[in-house]
């Protein structure tokens, strides 16, 4: 018989060591599962796991997106919308504003958005208290959870340089059904030998019903690009932002001048013989503005209905109106409207209103709205005379008078 334990001492546990370890392991496992369940509930996925979302075909379609995500079924039959409902729920838990790292463009400019000083928020049209906000990027939480897939782009902004392509892409990214690459891929003009698998891997993940987009303005003037894009998909939708070719040429020169201050004057580059008034078509700043000649190549591979020509001037003057045309062309619900913009008088460009909670708008980079050098009026008139026949042909081909010859 064992002797009694000394008074005041604790009794020695006879529980086996292995059982104690098992209990601790079980407790840790339960804690982990509970944490995972809480995370899923925060993402509202626990609602989707309990059963499918059910609607009625013919009468219960999602507002503004008829037919999207509807599975096969006859009239009056219950139809499941799991992907659409899941994406909508995930979108409801994203209070943070959109922030993207700076992307270096091919022309050397930083393509990311910059923040405006707080004082602009109170200006007319600013995003003060109670104003509308720009939507945050869709599907962020879904993509973190591994949902979605990378697709080849269904729509591409193919041109033109210094026409307003960056503004168009950033405005479109406000739409919850648009996902786009930030930097210019330059696949169809410089990296085509790397193959479509490489190109697809550059694209962002998309959820069901979303459109994948990219923009590379040099495609419009690249001879091989139309055939290459057509070989990828004949159904690709193409957007071209066009601008008065004379103003575009001066803007192009201004950008080059900011990087190379020692280049010759605009006048000496624009003319082969200034005295005779012979315009140098070989200079890229002039050649890009011959829109009709470039368009002829694209129409050999794509029907006119698959190209949309966006007015760069109207994109500045009435961004919501021009974005309405673009959303219709892409088959998107008209979500981007006047409430998303305010006009920055200092830059001379429209800006997007910041996400709710920030109270500050964001605009295109500092290089946008850069002042142009003084160009002799006679030089500009000669260039307008040079472009006039090309512009008129372009108006006929597109069925739209852009008013550059007034």
Q: Helices, strands, pairings?
A:
Blueprint: H1 17-42, H2 45-49, E1 54-56, E2 78-80, H3 82-91, E3 114-115, H4 140-144, E4 149-150, E5 155-159, H5 165-172, E6 178-180, H6 187-190, H7 196-202, E7 205-206, E8 211-215, H8 225-232, E9 237-242, H9 245-259, H10 266-270, E10 271-273, E11 278-279, H11 284-287, H12 291-299, E12 307-311, H13 312-317, H14 319-329, E13 341-344, E14 349-352, E15 362-363, H15 377-398
Parallel strand pairs: 5-8, 5-9, 6-8, 9-12
Antiparallel strand pairs: 1-2, 3-15, 4-7, 10-11, 13-14
Can you put this structure into words, describing what you see?
- The protein has about 400 residues and is an alpha/beta fold.
- It is built from 15 helices and 15 strands.
- It has helices spanning about 15-40, 45-50, 80-90, 140-145, 165-170, 185-190, 195-200, 225-230, 245-260, 265-270, 285, 290-300, 310-315, 320-330, 375-400; strands at about 55, 80, 115, 150, 155-160, 180, 205, 210-215, 235-240, 270-275, 280, 305-310, 340-345, 350, 360-365.
- The strands form six sheets. It has a five-stranded parallel sheet with strand order 6-8-5-9-12.
- A hairpin with a 4-residue loop joins strand 10 (about 270-275) and strand 11 (about 280).
- The termini are far apart.
